[in-house]
Description:
By secondary structure, this protein is mostly helical. The protein folds into two domains: 2-80, no CATH class; 95-124. 50% of the residues lie in helices and 5% in strands. It has five helices and two strands, in the order E-H-E-H-H-H-H. Helix 1 (21-30) links the parallel strand 1 (11-13) and strand 2 (35-37). Helix 2 crosses helix 3. The longest helix has 21 residues, at 104-124.
Amino acid sequence: MLDQIPGPVNAVLADGAYDGEPVYRAISDRHPTAAVIIPPRVTAVPGQKADTTPTQRDHHIQQIAEKGRMTWQAATGYGKRALVETAFFRYKVLIGRSLRARSLPAQKIEARIACAVLNRMTSLGMPVSRKLA
């Protein structure tokens, strides 16, 4: 999947199901500068070289042990993942689970139009706040 992305990847956010050295290794092989933000499992332990050359995963495990999981989530921006999941859920509910166009160029246009519609609908429901005093 990472081979299909033409440009550089800045960060990879995933849920705990993807926690493990093979995933971290695959991402770092293809995109060495990418931040990997995957919450370690509760039973996760640091790697064998955590004392000499800690990996991103080792840093996450250490930070969670020292400051707690919620602090780690705030520090790493892990909450963005929930916002993305909500956006995809909203898209699937309002637009549908599949594309109707057959060719790839037409599918790209269809997805762009659907996103524009979704953004318009979201903006209509947002309150306008003004400071009175």
